Amino acid sequence: MIPKRLTATNDFQAPAPVQHLDQRDLAARWLVSPRTLEQWRCQGRGPRFLKLGGRVVYPMEEVEAFESANLHANTVAALPTTVYPDGADAPR
Questions:
Q1: For the domain that residue 35 is a member of, what is the CATH number?
Q2: Distance in angstroms (rounded) separating the CA atoms of residues 41 and 48
Q3: Nearest Cα to 37, choosing from 19, 25, 20?
Q4: pLDDT over threshold 70, residue 6
Q5: Which among 24, 68, 78, 84 is least surrounded, fewest beta carbons within 10 Å?
Q6: What is the pTM of this model?
Q7: In a domain, 5, yes or no
Q8: Does 33 map to a domain?
């Protein structure tokens, strides 16, 4: 049996874009302690998350929505328009 030849151009697949961040990755992104994220989850602060078994992950669209909702033009007030991926306009 003759083995099938592999070609470099046909076998390469680009990695899928990141769709979720785990607690460690989000903590590194925001330069906070993973424990801070744990406390925020208990307090109902921070971005929405998924709990899959015992594993917590943050969907990228929720992380980006939380970041957008917390943009400030100055130290007094947040920017006026907040849009969440699910269409909700209330803070979480």
A1: 1.10.10
A2: 8
A3: 25
A4: no
A5: 24
A6: 0.65
A7: no
A8: yes
